[in-house]
Amino acid sequence: MRADRLVAALLFLQERGQVTVAQVAAELEVSERTARRDLEALAMAGIPVHAQRGRNGGWSLVGGARTNLTGLTADETRSLFLTAGPAATSPETRTVLRKLVRALPAPLRPAAEAAARAGFTDPTDWSRATSTAAEPHLDALQRAVVAGVQVRLGYATPGRAAGERIVHPLGLATKAGVGYLVAETAEGLRSFRLSRVVSAVATGDPVARPDGFDLAVAWRALAARMEERLHAATVRVRAAPDASAVLHRLFDGRLRTVGQLADGGLEVELDGPSAEVVAAQLAGLGARVEVLDPPAARQELARLGAELVARYPPPR
Predict the structure, then answer these.
(1) Cβ contacts of residue 48 below 8 Å, gap of 6+?
(2) What pTM, to 2 d.p., does this model score?
(3) Which of 307, 230, 239 is CA-nearest to residue 274?
């Protein structure tokens, strides 16, 4: 868990005074790139962590080495626990936070405990489906990323049977509470949703890591490609006044208002992966929406309507 590492990195800084990225990586048993990101995360959380460049440089807490975290101010302690608290969903993480609280000076403990309790991460969506617990292979993938070894990945794409492929794990990313593996494949850089991974077996062969690879940059490029697919087709519709709120919930940032209608309704443009997919999403709104364009969306609604009438004929 990253919260564990952040706390461990901070305690290591307190103990040593000044450390190098390599020393932090060895202490936390992670890659130097991960150790550097953790140190930068501490700084972004408001902890006075400073990097000094040069031959005798390293990372240290501003003001020199301190013990028992007495160098932290109340605001800095609160920032740390606000960052780590919501991630404390495992017993191990909660144990680390309790140890850190005990290491704090007595006057700072109440505020730290309050900050740790101020946030919470709910792993289920509104349908009560678990979004994070359905990642049984997360630990194996984390180990593969850190060790830099290839993985034989079993992956189930919706609507298709699960298949296997060899991937080069390069990092893990989380977007809106959903975890993804970023990996190099025979088809290029790809992302894999962790909840769809059915098996992950390390092969022992080393990962071929691209020169200058940066996980944040790679993820932004992958996310941009996914967003492009969500905006591949545009459907223009006329919506009744009572359909506006539903459309905003269904399409969120993929809805644009074109004009206001005389009856209080709206003419809007809706983006989706295809005209047929958008039509299927609109089918449940019935006559409250009228698709104006493109013809493919109108034809799909007509097909769906005929199919439903055939399956559920009106009573005689």
Answers:
(1) 61, 62, 63, 71, 76
(2) 0.56
(3) 230
